Amino acid sequence: MKKFLFFIVIISGIEQLSAQIKHKISPADIYRLQSISDPHISPDGKWVSYTLSTVDSAKDKRNSDVWMVSWDGEQTVQLTNTPEGESSARWSPDGKYISFISSRMGEKNSQIWLMDRRGGEAKKLTDIKGDLEDYVWSPDGKKIAMVIKDQDFSDTAKSKTRNPFVMDRYHFKEDIEGYIENRYSHLYVFDLATKKTDTLTKGNYDESSPVWSPDGKQLAFVSNRSADPDRNDNTDIWIMDAKSGATLKQITTWPGADRDPQWSPDGKLIAYLQSSSNEAFTMYGQNKLAIVSANGGTSPLFIRPIDRPIRDIHWSKQGQIISFLFTDDRKQNIGQIKIADSSFKTISTGDVFLNIESTTSSEGLVACVSSPQLPVELYAIENNAVRRLTHVQDSFTNQIQLSTVEGFTSISKDGTKISGILYRPADAPANQKLPLILFIHGGPVAQDEFSFDLSRQILSAAGYAVAAVNYRGSNGRGLDFTRAIIGDWGNKEVMDIMGAADYLVEKGIADASRIGIGGWSYGGILTNYCIATDTRFKAAASGAGSALQFSMYGVDQYVTQYETELGTPWKNPEKWMKLSYPFFKVDKIKTPTLFMAGEKDFNVPSVGAEQMYQALRSIGIPTQLVIYPGQFHGISKPSYQKDRMDRYIQWFGKYLK
Fold it and tell me: pTM for the complete prediction?
């Protein structure tokens, strides 16, 4: 008996020790990370629905299911669990049901399904032939407004051979969607009682973002009805009665973009996001809050810019306050504007709210919140108090050792202050110089934030100081900072990245003889610019990048930006030649470089990586080209995500260690 008790004590001790031991995060942990998104509070304020995405390693894909958590955080319930996956969960207005989108039972097109919130089998509501892009319940719960893309009739009935793609549009290709033919997205209304679907809009225009008026009689939506919508971003807010044949009424006329309409609780006003620029198209803008009368007139009654991009606007229950998210120097914060006096205040800041992805208003707010040491979890916000609702990431974070993360500010050679984020291995001595990887974000209009970053954590755990740099062109620092690189790519951004590297070397953090650089999308493009500018980099990894910008015209999806920002190549060849300098200065490059791309990427097609790979091979610089089969601009297959991180570590390890 004593021996048995001694054995139990030993086993218990081993289990406790095992629980305390954490391994360094590695590429294999990609399979373990879960993702929470799309939270919505129930009408009675007692539950929050959300989507939880997990990796099915056997099928090598992610699968999403619908869950809900009680407002007090005490109960968590999984509502769906099928191989097909479910998304876009929405509460019925009476709170008794939850709808979602799924392509169950071998359906070619996704349909709307409905299930009792208390459990039981879901039933299919719709039989849609086109692509369902969005849907929203009417206030009385009797109808559902839908956005559906026109049916694709390209497949022949008797043959598996697809009909040829036939395009006559100015904008004729898009990542994931592929070649764009004359299929458009229109509004429909589905009646739950009769199962009848009415067509509300037609024509060669797209409609999006439908929202019901509080009385359920009208729909506000977004559409670009200019002469050639492909050539500009001039979307406006429109209103129509929610029935076939109704007249459309345009309520905004800003030459730029108006989007994301939200009715006030009394139905008299519509709040929306207005672009900061009245240009027909710009990549370098930010949204501001505007309000217009729903009864007529196209001039905004209220515009409130704060020189920061805002999104996810929500009226308070009484209609006196509008809450939203705004991007501010490596953070996402919740802001509020009081309509009566236009006063603005921040209700979240500091070390708690570091990356808030979305909000939903009801009795309180619910937000997806992340920090450098914690992947996204749901938090409740009520009376400015914060309370964590979910703990899905505990099993992930309890087993891994994470890098330390801190902000830094560097100064570029022209005196511009640049914000950065530094990752250091958890076990690295405080004053030890480390090999440095500058891992550059895409966009360019985006920013690196104090949120959980799996890629940089994995790279840092491999023994590197990893730096994120919010170069000019990033958002979060005001409109002028974002617009500083218009028509001048690879200049100020490169200066800012070099300045960050100089700062980290000067502070004794980075080993000047072991600096690498990498990134994806515009991060890959900037990697090419940097290695063509400076030979200090001992290794590089350019993902989904380009260099010979001449060759991108008509090949990628950015023709509107090119002609607006640079002019056509045949009229402005000097500008295009200047921006293509990494390719034309390839003989100056000394950096061993790994090039990567998705086979089906129409955003930055693989030809950009192929050209630079071929050029470096021709001049004898060590290089490698990796193309991920069937992948678009974002690499979505889990095994390929792991492979990409493995290759980063191998490539940088070969030349920096």
Answer: 0.92
Specify whether the CB–CB gap between 253 and 301 falls below 8 A. Answer: no
Q: Please give the Cα distance from 549 to 581 (Å, whole number).
A: 9
Q: Are 80 and 66 in contact (CB under 8 A)?
A: yes
The CA distance from 80 to 512, in Å, is 52
Which H or E element spans position 598? strand 593-598
> b/e map of 311-329 (b: 16 or more CB within 10 Å)?
bbbbbeeebebbbbbbbbb
In one-letter notation, the amino acid at residue 159 is S
b/e for 238-272, b at 16 or more Cβ within 10 A?
Answer: bbbebeeeeeebebbebebbbbbbbbbeebebbbb
First to last CA, the chain: 55
d(CA 175, CA 159): 26
The DSSP H or E segment spanning 359 is: strand 356-361
β-pair partners for 53:
35, 64
Enter the DSSP assignment of 550. G
> Which CA distances in Å does 93 have to 135, 418, 552?
14, 47, 48
496 touches 466 (CB < 8 A): no
**What is the predicted pLDDT for the residue at 17?**
42
Summary mean pLDDT of the chain? 91
